[in-house]
């Protein structure tokens, strides 16, 4: 009998995003599933990377290239000592899992949840505790596009084993952006129960209304922020993410992080270090918001035109729609449009019927063509 895999491998099946991208390729479908831009990153980032190759090619210190830690500190209003550069936000989250919780601990998070949160919690032996968002009809006037944070349910889910509150705002997949009042209430709750907070803010520059409040500004002593150059600079495959720790708490997290990938790709760190101040000075994020805003409206109008219920996002590049319950696999094969089934973001409560997440970080052409294909498919199907 050969040796067996550790039971933890059971939690690492193919992610819904990889699966839908694979099926999209297989069926020649337009991919509005996995959230990655279809355009190349901005020229100023690519040029900085070209200059860095052959110049910054060896290991950087595990917490990150000093120039990038400084650029991030400047951009985020923290000190360089609080910043740890990681191989994407996914590694930022797993380093925090390694550092903050384990066997016997509970991690309280919201449902629908971003897919990585569950396996990352289970892999360190902790228990995910999911608190459903309330889903109201879109005409209820709810600012979260239909989803509402249930603070009472959140507090009720906390037990003496709870160690961490894991939040995501702007929120993938709902597109909600928590208001300052909601964040203040969350912080009060974290303080009352002495919880760490992991605030996944990878879409921090992608909002369509008022700018989101960084949670660390409300509770600097207990909030770990996760960020992503991939999202900000449209280079999701570069795998440059970061953690901002509370003051004085970086060395332990950096210590854990060095044993996963040791350091992130050095020339790409150098490029991001150069690009961050440029992006800010040249209004790149404002342009990004405008351009995504246009594509969001294009998609939302098209879907509404088909009589579908659209949950208008306040941030991120995702939009949820309620459609007849067809199945994402049928859609990718027959309509040749890849989208993510809402049920993929639910594990504890029954998923609301007929929800699908569309990514609109794709070209206007792709969006228009996907709308046509979907319209035709739904019409023929009746
Ligand atoms: N964040 C992206 C999404 O939600 C993709 C994540 C991934 O594939 N790791 O679509």
Automatic annotation (TrEMBL):
Domain Aminotransferase class I/classII large: 30-374
GO cellular component assignments: cytoplasm
Keyword Hydrolase: no
CDD domains per record: AAT_like (cd00609)
Alphabetically ordered keywords of this record: Aminotransferase, Pyridoxal phosphate, Transferase
Cofactor(s) annotated in UniProt: pyridoxal 5'-phosphate
EC number: 2.6.1.17
Pfam family, any one: Aminotran_1_2
Keyword flag Disulfide bond: no
InterPro entries: Aminotransferase_I/II_large, Kynurenine-oxoglutarate_AT, PyrdxlP-dep_Trfase, PyrdxlP-dep_Trfase_major, PyrdxlP-dep_Trfase_small
Molecular function, one GO term: succinyldiaminopimelate transaminase activity
Gene3D superfamilies the record matches: Aspartate Aminotransferase, domain 1 (3.90.1150.10), Type I PLP-dependent aspartate aminotransferase-like (Major domain) (3.40.640.10)
PANTHER family: FI04487P
Name of the protein in its database record: Putative N-succinyldiaminopimelate aminotransferase DapC
UniProt organism field: Calidithermus terrae
Lineage summary: Bacteria, Thermotogati, Deinococcota, Deinococci, Thermales
Gene name, Swiss-Prot/TrEMBL: dapC
């Amino acid at each position: 009998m050969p040796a067996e895999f550790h039971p933890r491998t059971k939690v690492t099946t193919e992610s819904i995003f990889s699966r839908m991208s694979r099926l999209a390729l297989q069926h020649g479908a337009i991919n509005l599933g996995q959230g990655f831009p279809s355009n190349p990153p901005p020229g100023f980032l690519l040029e900085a990377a070209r200059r860095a190759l052959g110049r910054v090619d060896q290991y950087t210190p595990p917490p990150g290239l000093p120039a990038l830690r400084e650029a991030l500190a400047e951009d985020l209003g923290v000190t360089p000592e609080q910043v740890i550069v990681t191989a994407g936000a996914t590694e930022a989250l797993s380093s925090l899992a390694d550092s903050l919780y384990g066997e016997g601990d509970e991690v309280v998070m919201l449902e629908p949840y971003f897919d990585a949160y569950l396996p990352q919690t289970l892999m360190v032996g902790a228990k995910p505790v999911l608190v459903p968002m309330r889903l109201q009809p879109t005409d209820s006037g709810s600012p979260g596009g239909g989803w509402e944070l249930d603070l009472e349910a959140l507090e009720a889910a906390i037990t003496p084993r709870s160690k961490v509150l894991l939040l995501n705002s702007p929120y993938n997949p709902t597109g909600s952006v928590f208001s300052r009042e909601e964040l203040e209430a969350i912080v009060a709750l974290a303080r009352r129960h002495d919880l760490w907070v992991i605030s996944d803010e990878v879409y921090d520059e992608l909002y369509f209304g008022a700018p989101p409040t960084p949670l660390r500004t409300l509770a600097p002593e207990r909030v770990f922020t996760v960020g992503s150059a991939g999202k900000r600079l449209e280079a999701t495959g570069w795998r440059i993410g970061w953690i901002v720790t509370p003051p004085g708490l970086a060395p332990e997290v950096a210590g854990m992080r060095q044993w996963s990938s040791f350091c992130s790709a050095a020339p790409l760190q150098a490029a991001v270090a150069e690009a961050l101040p440029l992006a800010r000075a040249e209004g790149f994020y404002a342009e990004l918001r405008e351009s995504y805003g246009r594509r969001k409206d294009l998609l939302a109008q098209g879907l509404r035109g088909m009589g579908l219920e659209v949950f208008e996002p306040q941030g991120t590049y995702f939009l949820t729609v309620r459609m007849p319950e067809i199945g994402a696999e049928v859609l990718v094969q027959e309509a040749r449009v890849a989208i993510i089934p809402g049920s993929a973001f639910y594990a504890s409560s029954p998923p609301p019927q007929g929800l699908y997440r569309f990514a609109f970080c794709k070209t206007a052409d792709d969006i228009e063509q996907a709308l046509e294909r979907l319209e035709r498919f739904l019409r023929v199907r009746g």
